[in-house]
Queue: 4 jobs
Job 1
Amino acid sequence: MAARDDDGAGLGAARVLDGDEVQGVLTGAFYQAPPESGRMLKAERDVNAKAKPTHYKVICISMYTKDLEQLDELVEKLKTRGITKANRSALIRVALEQLDLDKVPRGM
């Protein structure tokens, strides 16, 4: 790699870039919307955001692949019977409603 000469060849970038603009980019001010713009800041969006639903929660559970395959097969059977809205969570909810705790094996 050749060394750069001090004959002014490296000054081209300094002539093209405005020092204030470079400083604005480096401080992040360059990317902020001016106050008179129609854009909202994150805090303003949070205040105006709709309330999250409280009647359900998204959760994550672990299941064996064999159990998932069985669950998916049951969902497909329900769909072929015309229950088009059948899905994993709906089937689990139905199973919970029908669960008899006295029939649950002790060793689960």
Job 2
Amino acid sequence: MDRDIVFINSLFPCLSETFVYDQYMALRDAGLHFHIVSNHRPAPDQIHPRMRAIVNEVIYLAESPWRDVLAAHMHALRRHPWRYLRSLLQIPFAGERLRTNLAQFSGAALLLHRYGQERPLHLHAHFTYGAAAVALWAHRLSATPYSLTVHGSDLIFDNPPDLRIRLNQASSIVSISEFNRAFLAKHHPDIPAARIELIRMGIPPGTGPQTRPAPANQLRILSVGRLSVHKAQHDLITACAQLRDQGTAFTCTIVGEGELRSELEQQISDLGLQTHVTLAGARFHDEVLALYSQFDVFVLCSITEGQPIVLMEAMRAGIPIIATSISAIPELIGDCGTLISPNAPEELSAALTAFQAAPAQHEERAKKADDRLRRDYDLQRNHVRFKKHLENLSRR
């Protein structure tokens, strides 16, 4: 009997992970039956209007009433007494993470109680964070298999608790890039290569590059990303100060919201860039897509990334790109853009100056991007591969 597939999320749906929602919709359209569980419910302003309908289909574990939590624990204890007691003893009952560990342990019991009584399950989680922890606890409680999609910062930068255990216990790991697959082989050699599957992300094919803006008397710079340490917008702002000091006429618009807004606002004020740099706040997906045709160059100066959908969208729009040479970005961009070192605002400033000196050369390179996307990053084709992979896992 095939296993029922349950997708576990830490927070779903949310603006910063629209690719997860798009994947679920593509899998559903392709005929895959599955359930969606999330540890937490997003705030209303984190949900794109097109995603609101799916909220009613999601089971939010953190909102379960106490009677359901108690019933789930009793069910797990009766069904797998030794596994339950052994799992309970694996919870570190000291330190700051006690509450989180107990919540994730209870989340696993709730999930198994709701979905695992009639049919066996296969669980899948994006990223190695809280959703992966719930999947691991469910595996410990009932031997339910789970798989993971690893993206980038969750594997390399953030170092979530029990990362090695979460990876090693997974029955399959989906890597979205060759970079991640090579990283796993180097740093986690105990994971068999056959257990790692390369399935890239993607975007729908476009109709070709957008009409580019007419030359202006100033360079128009666009950057899109959450205002966080990962995205390193402070380097872009520093580079903008260098452009201003050398007499370059420009404007820079940074689209996104996040915990570093006040710090970036202070940096802009301290450098006297209020008339040059704008923090435009969060924008819905369709608004971001419309922006590409209004700017001359797109900048991504992150210090850690997976396989940025925003870069794919910029490539599809045909806007010249300057991005940091980290993780999977070089294999995504290839020779279709300019790569710079992370944490190097001087290098970014020089790349922007070079772009302004010879924009036609960069425009020509950007025109190659659409072919690259169609070859390796076709959303529908890659999601069909993922569907087949999940179906194979559900038959084990």
Job 3
Amino acid sequence: MPKVESRRSKFSQPRQRLPLSTGARLRKLFPVCLFVLLVAGNAGAEPEEDHRAWQHGIDVIRIGEKLLVVWGSPGNPPRANPGGDWQHDVFYAWLKAGAGEEAALGAPQILVSRPEAQEPPSIAINAAGTLLMTSEDGENGINQRAGLWDSGLRVLRKYPFTIKRGGHSGHVAAMADRFLVAYGEGWVERGGFLDRGTGKDIYVRIVENDGARRRETKIAAGHRDGWPLVAGSERNWLVVWQRYPEMSLHSALIAATGKVTRQLQISEHMPVRYAYDVEYLPALASYVVAGSSGQGGFIALLSLAGEVEKIQYGLPPMASESRILAHCDEAQCIGVYPVRPRGVAVVRLKPGAIELLKLIDHPYAWDYTGTSGAFVTPDQVIFVTLSTSGIKLVPINLQ
């Protein structure tokens, strides 16, 4: 697609186990990690070629007992065109990652293939078992488009139907049998990642189970806002996005009607592009927002009313375009997220309390092209991550 971030060449278009008692070691580690973050936020320090030309955008969702991986790539392995228009298709594969077995990814298959790039893909499944996949689409100009499938990946409404003409950088989450797609619109040249510009305004739109588009709501305007992420609860959705040049993180709570019921700034001084995530934890009846700020990493718990219940700074910094994975049982909720430049952080999440349990070292260095994953057992996670050489599996034992 014509790279709008030109915009990005798209528009852009978002470890050793350490005992808790070794606080001094962590304090020594954080300034180093923060330095890396600040360097990464400096366009002059990035490689000349944008790694997203190779692969960009990945989701892992659970369908019954199976894990589905969806990602954007110009082939597998990727055949990039970093100096020209991108040609990403949307691929899927089933992930084998059961307890006691070696993780393996099935053969990649095409979900969507059309002229120009469809990336980054975002996918969600609703209570009716319908999947909605949305992507920024470079065919005939930049537009946010979508398609619908059932849980067996049979087409229910063929891709592409348009969510927003001129829309870009979209993500989706489900609530009951509906979806909310959050996306950007407009572009401001210069500045931002690799000096390719930033988004301008943020919108959301409800999409019904049959693909019917409902009201569109503008939730951010008058600034340089981009890379909206969204999570859904049983009552509403929470959208988070980044504002440039302040590099602050903002949120909007969206009711089932599509109305904005609350907005607030969650954090400031976030020096890395798109180093944040939002998920919903039913066990806590709270949204969890993880990210990287000028004080290292942070995690915030937000209520269903959109209010910050607890925010903990001084955590390890989160890798760009990665997710926090969560597992809850009767005793506690555990969150795991990729740490820049490598390894993972393990945190305990409780009402009104967020505690770093450990850092786990791992040799793999996270790229900024997309990382997602899932818990395999309460003591094991698997991250599925994109790179210039192709999709990778990174299993982590939490014990």
Job 4
Amino acid sequence: MSAVVAIAVHELKRFLADRFNLFFVLVLPMILVVVLGLQATSQSASSVGVVDGAAGDGAATLTTVLVDQLEAAGLEATAYPDEEELGDAVTEGALDVGVVVRSAEPVALEMVAPGEEAPPGLDQLVQGAADSAVVELGRRQALAGAADGVSPDDVAAALARAEEQRDPVTVDVRSTDPVMQEFASMGRFDIGAGGQLLLFVFLNTLTAASATIQARRSGALRRVMAAPVSARQVVAGQALGRFVVAVFQGVYIMAASSLLFGVEWGNLAVVSVVVAVFGLVAAGVAMLIGVLMDGEGVASGVAVGVGLVLAALGGSMVPLEFFPETMRRFAYLTPHAWAYEAIAEVQRRGGGLVDVLPQVGVLAGMAAVVLALGTWALRRSLGRVM
């Protein structure tokens, strides 16, 4: 047994001794967790520029009120001094859309968009803000006309004070989509961390297959077999070595994402079981690649290709809930989909081991198959060495 552990520890040390591997194990997963987390929450307000294109008092007032109403609608609104500067800002991408006030009576607005049409939904928001601006102007004019000797500025100030004293309106938004409710209840980095966990556990375990090829080509396996070590111990050590790489990667991502970004994994014991069984699948596939491929470059290419394709199909890059129904059926041919479903059950719904037993059972079956094939292939290879 000590020989098996020694081989596994040696495989892990050799894997971590490569600085190129350290980047993919330690740095890149955290970078992608951050990028996906920021992307998931990058719901910044659209930017709108407004310019007075009529050069009149009424148009100037309408421009000011329109900026206020656009901001009240949740948009980033900015007044621009002239149309040329507004057009340049839209062309350069500093603004999503521009609005030119052509006339105040009757109200006429012109929208300046970077393409043939404004971004979807933004034109309706601008139209709604313009309608609100017209109502606000009408209210101010009515109050100014009813109160002799009161300037429009005084009316605007009085309305602003009344708005501040008014009790806020509370609106509760209830979603009828349970999936979106689950996503909304999660932290900004939680979803991305789950996908990256599965992606890199599988991918980096597969890339470790090149170590088996190095051992075969350098004669290291021949020297090991010359020692009092049986072929069974060598096979077990190689399999355990791949599994240790997978576990190391999984533990690191869970620990680092929790400490650095506050990712909530739910029941860590259950998630660890899922990652461990998933790592067994990756270890079996890595053994197969290490035996069937003759060149390290070819093995690395195959490992990266297989790892990325399975991750994409299995929901590690885009959540399975967003897949079309037909594509989702194909996704369950991959171990990633079953592991994703299990982690989602624990992470989002507080599930326990009993809740994820079906997924763990499928992963265990996959692991048994690929480990059996990998063991058989490696024993044949060792037989030729002897």
